[in-house]
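Changelog-adjacent note: as of this version, every example in the card shows the full chain rather than a window. The one below runs 403 residues end to end.
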Amino acid sequence: MDDEPKPTPYPRSTAPAEEPPAEEAPRRRRHPFRATGKAVVALVSVVALAATGYAWATYHEVQGNVHTTDALDLPEDKPAPPADDGGDDILLVGADARTDMQGNALPLQVLKTLRTEQTSGVNTDTIIVVRIPKNGAKPFAVSIPRDTWIDVPRGGQGKINSVYGLAKQAKADELRGRGKRDSAEVERDSDQAGRQALVQAVQDFTQVRIDHYAEVNLLGFYLITEALGGVEVCLNHATEDKDSGADFRAGVQTVSGGEALSFVRQRKNLPRGDLDRIVRQQAFLSSALHKVLSAGVLANPGTLGDLTDALHRSLVLDPDFDLLQFADKAKGLASGDVTFTTIPVITINGRSPDGEQSIVEVDPVAVRQFFAGLAGRSPGSGGGAAPGGAVVQAVPAGVTCVN
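Full-length structure tokens:
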């Protein structure tokens, strides 16, 4: 991650009193959103900027100022899957860290606005592999449930969403034990260890060579999506869940702020629990992509300025991630012509071997065959998923009805 300090992007209502007012034209009222699936929206925003002649200079500004990480630099004793596997694969990560990009804790008022609270450590609640087949077939965005039980890099087994945080904590403890007192340096180096461990875990689990890495945290997604002013979603049935705060009617509706958070976080009272939660996230993303790419968003200088500013502050990429090349390869993402799917699972109601944790149980062989099949799709083969995978495809209006 870059060493150069960036301004702390708190919402205006909670900004420190000594912070001078921004020298910019007044912006419309913004809305905070939950960080689920945040990296996809961030990258599609970049694709939109790169693909729009009006925003050409903006694209170069983003590329030149984005934070970087060496997450793909894995130890030599950890061989990666073959590089020529039929597709370009990007690991998109949504981290739930309650900090800004410099590791500073978010103010309590910001956490309340986001309907969350301060916790220690980092979990990766969104893990998506975007596969862009080299044969010209449609891109796939494959979700890996956060509770998926896997072999972890440090030995033994655990949930995939814990890999980043555990490796980060171990590295931070090691650095402090060696006398490191610079908190910014500890934060940067421990983040690096966490990201590398997650990349290793995903590669080992899927046997997919990760070609690029992109990450956005909770506050980053807030900054990226607040300019949209709400996202349209559609529910097949009315639903309610006190834990997440969900209370939605059936049909099409626009969610923003706390409602958007509740929409993508709800797990209870859904027929398939966490799998339906993932479908919710995917449907939300489809609608958000449609809105990001609408003429009203891309033709608005103020909105483009907001997106650029947010990407500066929140997006983390590997150093070799060329955004222009990605935009050229991922036209399907920019047009919304992408299939969202989930890895095949055995059960979402499994238990860890010690019986202490609820897990998503999978067959690693079936998962690897599933990914291999995606790379082998012909350009005209269409969408779909292996048995057990849930598919959401954006309809022309950008809205998909879900449970």
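Structural remarks: The domain at 29-402 is CATH 3.40.630.190 (Aminopeptidase).
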